[in-house]
Specification:
- It is a single chain.
- By secondary structure, this protein is mainly β.
- Helix content is about 0%, strand content about 35%.
- It has one domain: TolB, C-terminal domain (Neuraminidase, 6 Propeller).
- The strands form 8 sheets. A 4-stranded antiparallel sheet has the order 3-28-27-26, with no helix packed on it.
- The longest helix has 6 residues, at about 150-155.
C-alpha cells in the first residue's frame, strides 16, 4: 500500500451549530412537503455512478488508542500524523461531544501502540474539529463552535471559546490564535464555524468555513462558503469562494489537503465532491467520484484518502459510507473500505458508521476519528500492496 505522511479531517455529528453557537440545528426528520434540509446537490452529481464495490486491502482494528486514567473516548474528528510519520495526534471532545465543563486535555499524541505520550489543551477548546501539523511539528487545531446559552448557563467558563484556529507548540504552548474566541464573523477578525486548517509548504495558512452550510439549500442568505488564506505569521491575505453549487462555491467546506504540486483539495461535503484550487483560489477541477467526504488526507506520493461518514438515501443517494483510496494525480479510485456495522448510523442516517477524520502514517496505516454511535479511533492496517 502506498506510504503516506499528512492529514486533516472533520465532522458532522448529531447537531450542526450556527454562527455564535447560540442556535442548534439538530438532525431534522424529512419535512412532510419534501426532503430534509441540505439534501440538495449540484446537478452534475447525478451523472456519476456510485463507487461502492472495490477491493479492500485493509484489516480493520477498532478501539485503537488508550486514554489516561481509564478515560473513555468521545467524538473524534480531528486526526493528523506527526512529522515523525509514526505518532498520531487526535482531538478528543473530552469523552463526550463537547468540552464544555470538562478539565481534561482534549489534544492527545499517540505512539504506534496507541499509548498517549503527550496531551494538552484543557480549558482552551470547546469543539475540536480539524487539525494539522506543520513542518516544525507545531499542532494547529480548529475549534469549530462556541458554547450555546444552555452550556454557558451550566458551565460559565465555557464562554469566550470557539470559532478559532489555535497554533500550539509540540509541547502544548499556545503560540497563535486566529479569529475572535467565542464570536462568529468574517476574516480577518473572525471565523464562522471553521471546519479545518491546512498549512501549505511555504507556511501559508488556509482555513475552511462553515459547518452549517451543508444543511442549507438553494440561495440561503446566511450561507458562508469561504476559504481564507493567511501568511505564516497570521497576517490575513485573502478569502475566496461563496455559498452555492457552482465551481468555486461551497456548502460546508469540511476538510483541506495539499497534493505534491501544492494544489489545494477541498472536501465540499454538502455538495458531495472535491474541488481543487491553486493557492490563489483559482478553481482547477471538480471530482465527484470520492463521494460525500468528511475527512481528507493526501500522502507525499499523492495517494488520496477520502472518508465518508454520512452518505445515505437523502444526503448522497446510491453511495455507501466508507473509506475510498485513490490517486490525487488522476482521480482514479482504487480501493473501498466499507462502513462498520452499527445499530445506529453515523451522520444523518442510512446504514452503518464510518469515521470523519482520516490520517495515514509512514507505514501506510490509516487512522480514522469516529463521531457518532461509534467513537474514538479506528486503525486500518494494509494487507496488500498495489
Amino acid at each position: 500500500m502506498p506510504q503516506s505522511v499528512r492529514t486533516v479531517a472533520c465532522s458532522l455529528c448529531a447537531a450542526a451549530i450556527v454562527a455564535a453557537g447560540a442556535v442548534h440545528l439538530a438532525a431534522q426528520p424529512a419535512a412532510p412537503q419534501g426532503p430534509p434540509r441540505g439534501a440538495s446537490a449540484p446537478p452534475e452529481h447525478a451523472k456519476v455512478t456510485p463507487i461502492n464495490h472495490l477491493p479492500n486491502p485493509y484489516e480493520t482494528v477498532r478501539n485503537f488508542g488508550t486514554l489516561p486514567d481509564g478515560r473513555k473516548w468521545g467524538s473524534v474528528s480531528a486526526v493528523a500524523v506527526d512529522i515523525d510519520g509514526k505518532h498520531i495526534w487526535a482531538g478528543d471532545r473530552c469523552g463526550a461531544n463537547v468540552c464544555a465543563g470538562s478539565d481534561v486535555n482534549p489534544i492527545v499524541k499517540l505512539d504506534p501502540t496507541g499509548k498517549v505520550v503527550a496531551s494538552f489543551g484543557a480549558g482552551l477548546i470547546m469543539w475540536p474539529h480539524g487539525i494539522d501539523v506543520d513542518k516544525q511539528g507545531n499542532v494547529w487545531v480548529v475549534d469549530a463552535r462556541s458554547a450555546t446559552p444552555a452550556e454557558i448557563a451550566k458551565f460559565p467558563n465555557a464562554a469566550g471559546k470557539g470559532h478559532t484556529v489555535l497554533k500550539f507548540s509540540p509541547q502544548g504552548k499556545l503560540l497563535l490564535t486566529l479569529g475572535t474566541p467565542g464570536t462568529a464573523g468574517a476574516p480577518p477578525k473572525a471565523f464562522t464555524e471553521p471546519n479545518d486548517v491546512a498549512i501549505a509548504p511555504d507556511g501559508s495558512i488556509f482555513v475552511a468555513e462553515a459547518h452549517n452550510d451543508q444543511f442549507m439549500d438553494q440561495n440561503a442568505p446566511q450561507g458562508v462558503g469561504r476559504i481564507s488564506k493567511f501568511k505564516a505569521d497570521g497576517t490575513f491575505i485573502k478569502s475566496f469562494g461563496k455559498y452555492g453549487y457552482g465551481p468555486g462555491e461551497f456548502r460546508g467546506a469540511h476538510a483541506l489537503a495539499f497534493d505534491s504540486k501544492g494544489r489545494l483539495f477541498v472536501a465540499d461535503r454538502g455538495n458531495r465532491r472535491i474541488q481543487i484550487f491553486d493557492q490563489e483560489g483559482k478553481h482547477l477541477d471538480t471530482w465527484y467520484q470520492f463521494s460525500r467526504i468528511s475527512g481528507l488526507h493526501i500522502a507525499a506520493d499523492d495517494t488520496l484518502y477520502a472518508i465518508d461518514s454520512e452518505s445515505d438515501d437523502n444526503y448522497n443517494p446510491g453511495w455507501r459510507k466508507g473509506l475510498r483510496v485513490g490517486s490525487a494525480r488522476t482521480g482514479e479510485v482504487w480501493y473501498f473500505v466499507p462502513e462498520h456495522v452499527s445499530k445506529q448510523a453515523s451522520g444523518m442516517g442510512g446504514v452503518g458508521s464510518m469515521g470523519e477524520g482520516v490520517t495515514v502514517d509512514a507505514a501506510g496505516n490509516v487512522y480514522a476519528g469516529e463521531v457518532g454511535p461509534i467513537q474514538g479511533m479506528t486503525k486500518f492496517i494494509p494487507r496488500l500492496k498495489r
